[in-house]
Amino acid sequence: MATLQIIGGGKMGEALLGGLVKSGWAPAADLAVVEPVLERRAALTLRHPDVEVCEVPLASIDAIIAVKPQIVADVAAQLGAIGAGRVLSIAAGVRTSAIEAALPKGAVVVRAMPNTPSLVSTGAAGVAGGAAATEGDIAWAASILGSVGHVETVTEADLDAVTGVSGSGPAYVFLLAEALIAAGQEVGLSAATSSALAKQTILGAAVLMHESDESPATLRENVTSPNGTTAAGLGVFEENDFRGLVAKVVAAATARSVELGD
Fold first, then answer.
1. pTM of the model
2. Does 163 fall in a domain?
3. Do 136 and 228 have their domain in common?
């Protein structure tokens, strides 16, 4: 019998499902996915035969809300009507207070902001508790998101900044990759070679940074010989206020997250 249901069988919902099973958080038989689209239910059933796949939410068990923000209130009302347990929402921009308003008084709500690398179990997420959430509830939510990546516990007010840094952050890296690939072609590399080198460089740098005890600043310094090629490239970044530009990018994404929540 299922003890946790994921409302929404899209990419992120399925990523969480796979992460929970793979990490041993729960056996597949203890999990359910609620998906209204028939074709999607069929695909989920085929890929996850031991998981309960259903059209409507199950009563009286914990739930993860993994649907589009505009239908979160309706889903929360459904869950409240059937006596759902704790609720973890990964819907972008939807405040815990808005979800709590659709649930019975005192219902436990935890909100998280994951990112798309969760699809390959290398995600980053911030988790914050609502009015009735205890440390145990937050730990429960963190353990779920931890099955697909790294989790930081923050205040709800900080989730907008989490969105600006890690929620939107993968897109910044993808844009850097696009730019590196194009620049490589401009200096004479083929499209295929430039693409392969740029992607592997970003992957290698990320893995090295993750596994090293040294700070990003030290790792950068280790690559940068005085008057060398790297110094020449980084000099252009500095001349064009690269750090200031990144600060503006994160601030803009954070501000937009605040607007969406309001």
1. 0.91
2. no
3. no
